[in-house]
Amino acid sequence: ATEKIKKQELEFSITRSSIQEINAIFTSMDAMRAALKTALESQWRLEEGKNEQMSALAHDLKTPLTVIRGNADLLGETPLTDEQQQYTGYIAESTLQMQSYIKALIDISKNKAATACPPQRQALPLAGFLAQIAAQAQALCAPNGVTVALTEQEPLPATVQADPALCKRAILNVITNALEHSPPGGRITIHAAAGGGWLSVAVLDEGTGFSAEALRHAKEQFYRADRSRGDRLHYGMGLYIATTIMAQHGGKLTLANAPTGGGLVTLALPCP
Length: 272
Hints:
By secondary structure, the protein is an alpha+beta fold. Helices cover about 50% and strands about 15% of the residues.
């Protein structure tokens, strides 16, 4: 009985004994079995309800996103200045990213394991990928008056084996975190380098840096107690997601404070 309860195999009946004291133990164990079964069923129903709500919300988000995408395409077909064309391109590209995130959210809400969508590694052309990241980062930061600089330490490999969509998501999450803690008119620097079997992309902001507590816990899911980084509330998911994506690639994410001040987050991928 104890082995079955330990394994959560709760559909069984406990055998009775002719000895009163043993029967008292059996009665307690049976009560334990029933209580655990009720609690697990209640938890399952709660999780199932949350998943259904998340799936429905993600599905409903597809409609306004389609409207945004369609109108961006229509704008692109009208006479626009070069600057306006650039902004329209940012809108269209960002909606495509959001559509991929919504699909992932729907998959997760349908109780698919996180490993159900492993990284789709391919030869990723590094120069074009970094340029795309810098352009999207600039579009993200411009409304806040924050500039973005991309620097590279030569030589860099021509390609790296990685999932483009996941790596872009990881880096942009780190850049978003840096933006949240950048002062108006500040700058975010993205620095790419290779060596020692690793390709690293470091993101440096000009904020107040990480607190000692944040250096220990900021990569954890839902961590938001980073008082040294501007006292701003956020969902505590960006660095966690980026850390998870790096781990899926056999890589790592590290946090530090730069000697010049500001937070420094480095994403590293194996680079044979």
